[in-house]
Amino acid sequence: MTDKPKLPRSEDGAYAGDMSPGEAWARLEADAKAVLIDVRTDAEFGYVGRPDLSKLGHEITLVQWVTFPDNGKNAGFVDEVAATGVTPENTIMFLCRSGVRSRYAAAAMTAAGYGDCHNVLEGFEGDKDPSGHRGTIGGWKVAGLPWVQG
Q1: DSSP letter string, 40-95
Q2: 72 with 66: CB under 8 angstroms?
Q3: What pTM was computed for the model?
Q4: Does the pLDDT value for residue 4 go beyond 60?
């Protein structure tokens, strides 16, 4: 049995900090240079839905942390984020399904010299409920924040 790698934590300086979906929305509302990067796969982004930032004059950026369908780590992640025009001067918030991949993404970008990187806790869909379904406990959607599907 192999040990799972430890999740990076903001407390150990791996990235700037965690924030709730509501706090991420407020930061985007207050900071024109703030960026929300969705690190889920193309399949999740297209079929499950995505945050709608149009009311704030922002667009969401998609850069996969892992690739679909093989679920392998995206070796070009840091370069792909940089190619979107994001700079170390931006506040960057990372979002995934439940707040795990986004921690790794925030830590990777911090290690690459981007100092104001944050993990959006609970992600887009939140944790599984007792029936094993997502979208009912925590997350962007449950917080009532704008989102679109398709």
Answers
A1: S-HHHHHHT-EE--GGGT---EE--SB-TTT--B-TTHHHHHHHTT--TTS-EEEE
A2: yes
A3: 0.91
A4: no
Task: Enumerate domains of the chain plus CATH numbers.
Answer: 13-148 (3.40.250.10)
Model confidence pLDDT, tens digit, residues 30-89: 999 999 999 999 999 888 999 999 999 999 999 999 998 888 999 999 999 999 999 999
Tokens, residue 7: 């999740």
Euclidean distance between CA atoms 80 and 4, whole angstroms: 26
Residue corresponding to tokens 């929300």 = 36
Alpha carbon distance 32, 35 (integer Å): 8
How far apart CA 146 and CA 51 sit, in angstroms, is 6
For tokens 């911090």, the residue is 110
**Amino acid in the structure at residue 15:** Y
Token readout for 122 is 């609970």
Residues 112, 92 contacting (CB under 8 angstroms): no
User: What is the identity of the amino acid at 113?
Assistant: G
